[in-house]
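Moderator note: this is an archived Q&A kept for reference. The question asked for a predicted structure of one protein chain; the sequence and the answer are reproduced below.
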Amino acid sequence: MINLFRKKRSCLISIGLMACFPAAIAQKAPAFTWEAKLPRVDSPGFYRIPVTPALSAKAFRNGAWDVRIFGDSAEVPYVALQSFKTISPGDFKAYPTPVLESHAGKETVIVFEQEPHATIREFGLRYANTAVPKKVVLTGSPDQIQWYAIRPPFLLDPSSAMPVPGKETILEETITIPASGFKYYKLVIDDSASAPLQINCIGFRSQKQERPLLQEVPGAVVKLLAGKDRRSDRFLITLPQQYPLKELSLSIARPQLYHREASLWILENGKEQSAGSQTLRSDAGVNSFSLDEGMLYDSLVMIVENGDSPPLEPEQVKAWQSAWCLVAKLEPGNYNMKGGAPGLHTPEYDVTYFSTAYHRQAGKDLVPGDPVVVKGNEVAEASPTFFTTRNWIWAGIIIVVGLLAFVVRGMLKDMKKEKN
């Protein structure tokens, strides 16, 4: 009889614990407010997903990209990268290589020398076009006598290397290392499993020149607001949605020559907040205002001080934002982008430590569709029920505590009976 009672109590405990699980699930399930479909992926690889203006209006929250990518079965990590326009790629300069020798069926040894007391964090290795990965050991030395470890053994991966412009038969692979100041560096390439690589040279690139790439946000409109006179004009600039903007550009139709002071104000909840000032000049061609990218904008006011001069007549206003893309490694299948879940933080993935590799391997663009509102979330958030509130969790805890008290009470009674 005692065993039977114990089994019944075990069943009650199990039922009580199972009753608490739906509450935990209800609390953890994120309620995404929007989603955007991606084109179907037919082949595996690294894909670049441009952050379109329509996507940025939904995905930018608290100064970061609030985006998650979901495949057919799981969430996919990604790296967010800002796009830049290269003005000058920088020249590739070769290091002296006092040792470059290959031992058939064993290894290739390369020693290169850099300037004394200089610090390097990466270098480029050029070799003949191949598809064979190689295991490499890298060490450093001040005198070519004693060698010291720099990083763990790694693979030369031709799939992550880039063809040298104008020399398609030569690959250039960038190798990153901890900041090091050795005079000599030695690479030992394992050739025991395959024929050696044909090494071209080892070197570095001089500092490349680039600038952030901007993309236009469509729909910006400028309108003159009524005032007492035209000595000081107020122009209202509006956009269809709130966007993270980098710059506003303005072209003036008339007069032909002008030199005016202007200020820009953010309009939010009926209040104006300063966003900077600028001298509008006819010799500039197109005048621009820089904006704080950490904010969202949909309404701004530009105040132009005309004084005794003829009023300015703006011809066109354009809004610009920094170009971003999300790089993800995808397998064949269907993918959705989602975001806007209340209380859900911007995701942090460990793949961000490999941003350089993701950037180098990014291939085809996957342009997302415009975000759409996820149906049903508004109703669920507006009218919470007992099972979607913390009350359900507390009720489950009380039930479990009650069951445990019942079990302990029964066990004490059984122990007294056995003593008697």
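Archived answer notes: DSSP finds five helices and 31 strands in the chain.
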